[in-house]
Amino acid sequence: MARNGHGYDAWRMRARRTLRRRNARGKRGTPRWMLAAVGLAGVGAFLFIAAAIAGIFVYESYAADLVPPDQLAINEASQGAKILDRNGNLLYEYVDDRAGLRRPIALQDVSEAFLAATIATEDDSFFTNPGVNWKGLARAAWENSPFSGADIFGGSGGSSITQQLVKNVYIPQEERQKRTIDRKLRETVYALEL
């Protein structure tokens, strides 16, 4: 064959270009970067689905441990005692060491201004959130993260009123001041369930 533009050398150069193009693409002509992107998206989707399934199992395991509010020990009457005179006037009252002095009052006897001030201070989304103030939790997560520039767990809390109730009723007293992910997850699940 002649070694000109129409001969062997030209054929060899065209064959090399074709091979380079094919090597840059997958078996069906798809660029390799596109195959890699699809593969990474598939792995990401798999990890997301696996995390979602794990999250559902964690939620269900915490929710299964929730004691209905009407079965809580906090609903028991105080074990204190009252000493009255012969006319029924209170002379002295012994206070239960564990339960303290409790005098429940009906909700309608509480001042509306007091309720509004408490809700505005503690959880302004109380009437609209499902038991968890997601915005407050996200803010607290940022403030307590190492990325915020502050000390880890040095920021404020983000609990809703429902979560605070859960912490004081369902979480054992020795665990209430500990800042752990497990306690916060349990608190969040219980608040959503309530």
Structural write-up:
By secondary structure, this protein is mainly alpha-helical. The chain is 47% helix and 5% strand. It has six helices and two strands. The chain has a two-stranded antiparallel sheet. The longest helix has 33 residues. The protein is rod-shaped, with a radius of gyration of 33 Å. The N and C termini lie far apart (87 Å).
Tell me the major beta sheet. 2 strands, antiparallel
Order of helices and strands: HHEEHHHH
**End-to-end Cα distance:** 87 Å
Please list the strands of the largest sheet in the order they lie side by side. 1-2
Count the E strands.
2
| Secondary-structure content class | mainly alpha
- Unreliably modeled segments: none
Query: Helicity level, as a percent range?
Result: 40-55%
Assign an overall shape: rod-shaped
Q: What is the C-alpha radius of gyration, as a whole number of Å?
A: 33 Å
The average pLDDT score comes to: 80
Beta-strand level of the residues, as a percent range? under 5%
User: How many helices does DSSP assign?
Assistant: 6
